TrEMBL record:
One of its GO terms (molecular function) is citrate synthase activity. This is Citrate synthase. Pathway: Carbohydrate metabolism; tricarboxylic acid cycle; isocitrate from oxaloacetate: step 1/2. The keyword Calcium does not apply. Keywords: Acyltransferase, Transferase, Tricarboxylic acid cycle. It catalyses: oxaloacetate + acetyl-CoA + H2O = citrate + CoA + H(+). The active site is at 268, 324. One of its GO terms (cellular component) is cytoplasm.
Length: 390
């Protein structure tokens, strides 16, 4: 299947996926979206401009960008039945479970989304999903908080609107500090795509059956939910809290070396040097902490990183901080509970999933996913009658 990674179980993934969306060089720590280095995009672009780049393959002109922002702003609301559906979840439902279910539910509100051969229709669904993901993500948070859902305020920018739907507590407009809006927008950029990661592969695999994009992205959300993938940022905070103080770090490191647990936020399937996003996120920490005050867990994280980077166990296994090691510290400084961290990852990753889904639907050679298997079971056995077995 040209559009999918082919796995040799028990060995390394043997990718055979062609894509022009994202380039990674794991040895050199390079990440580029449509050829543009992540460092330049994080520094100078906006999340919606990067979303346009990923989906359309080029940076937008002024007119194209204004139309793009208008169209996305226009689609931030969701049908009231979706709101009722989300209000039906238990009070303690995990936001990622709610997000996965709600995005999947959207496929029943837009049955035309299954007509994936129509280019205009594909773009309408893409715009709808980028627009509605923050609304669904914010409502998953409000449900967990036991607070009423806040409707989009389309006078605000995309990321400021998301923060408003999360934290608004009165009738007056919620205006988040611009530095926080910028930092969260940058975090969304850093998470926007990442080649053939587990969740992108899930989207491609499900999408190769020619199902609608909502169902394919719901599968990606399910993959991202896992602690080895998107759930790692939540696990990092729990790990730092459990370590508790710098003096406890050596004992924790010994536990990792003994195989008791992993150093969450370290290691990567591709980056065998540093994850370029981790460097940028570390800088964003300073910007956020200038506003919110320093997260007390930062000191433990920095000491843990320092010790690990000098320890042969990690260096010999080429384990370095990945995108998740510091992102949780920022999210916690925003007052997000850990179970919301992966929802933030999902909102950021949505344009990447959709860019790869779109690429898949445009690939005329694309066939349905059918990864190779290496059979390791028995062969040619004769059935033993039950009276001889029981
Ligand atoms: C993301 O694919 C993507 O692009 C994902 C992502 C994206 O943007 O989509 O980048 C986002 O998922 C980042 C990764 C977040 N996950 C974590 O931080 C969880 C902790 N990390 C690990 O679970 C692990 O590093 C993985 C899952 C990320 C990678 O697993 P691999 O490919 O098995 O790691 P490896 O082959 O490089 O491991 C080599 C050795 C092994 O030990 P030995 O068998 O040689 O003795 O290193 C060990 C591993 O057990 N190891 C770790 C470790 N990660 C690998 N040991 C301790 N702590 C770790 N974190």
């Amino acid at each position: 299947s040209p559009g999918l990674a082919i796995y040799d179980p028990g060995f390394v993934n043997t990718a055979s996926c062609r894509s022009a969306v994202t380039f990674i060089d794991g040895e050199k720590g390079i990440l580029e979206y449509r050829g543009y280095p992540i460092e330049q995009l994080a520094e100078s672009s906006t999340f919606l401009e990067v979303a346009y780049l990923l989906i359309n393959g080029a940076l937008p002109s002024k007119a194209e960008y204004e139309q793009w922002v208008h169209d996305i702003t226009y689609h931030t609301f969701v049908h009231e039945n979706v709101k009722s559906f989300m209000e039906g979840f238990r009070y303690d439902a995990h936001p990622m479970g709610m997000l996965m279910a709600s995005v999947g539910a959207l496929s029943t509100f837009y049955p035309e989304a299954g007509v994936i051969g129509d280019a205009d229709n594909r773009m309408i669904q893409i715009i709808r999903m980028i627009a509605k993901m923050p609304t669904l993500g914010a409502w998953s948070f409000r449900n967990a908080q036991g607070k009423p859902f806040v409707y989009p305020d389309n006078e605000l920018s995309y990321t400021a609107n998301f923060l408003s739907m999360l934290f608004k507590m009165s009738e007056s407009r919620y205006e988040a500090d611009e530095r926080l809006v910028k930092a969260l927008d940058t975090l969304f950029i850093l998470h926007a795509d990442h080649e053939q990661n587990c969740s992108a592969n899930a989207v491609r695999s499900v999408g190769s059956s020619q199902v609608d994009p909502y169902s394919a992205v719901a599968a990606g959300i399910g993959a991202l939910y896992g602690p080895l993938h998107g759930g790692a940022n939540e696990a990092v905070l729990r790990m730092l809290r459990r370590i508790g103080s710098k003096s406890e770090i050596p004992a924790f490191i010994e536990g990792v070396k003994n195989g008791n647990e992993k150093l969450m936020g370290f290691g990567h399937r591709v980056y065998k040097n540093y994850d370029p996003r981790a460097k940028i996120i570390k800088k964003a920490c300073d910007d956020v902490f200038d506003v919110t005050g320093v997260n007390p867990l930062l000191e433990i994280a920095q000491e843990l990183e320092k010790i690990a980077l000098e320890d042969d166990y990690f260096v010999s296994r080429k384990l370095y901080p990945n995108v998740d090691f510091y992102s949780g510290l920022i999210y916690e400084a925003f007052q997000f509970p850990p179970e919301m961290f992966t929802v933030l990852f999902a909102i950021g990753r949505t344009p990447g999933w959709l860019a790869q889904w779109l690429e898949l639907t445009q690939d005329k050679e694309q066939k349905i996913a059918r990864p190779k298997q290496i059979y390791t079971g028995d062969r040619g056995l004769d059935f033993t009658p039950r009276d001889q077995r029981w």
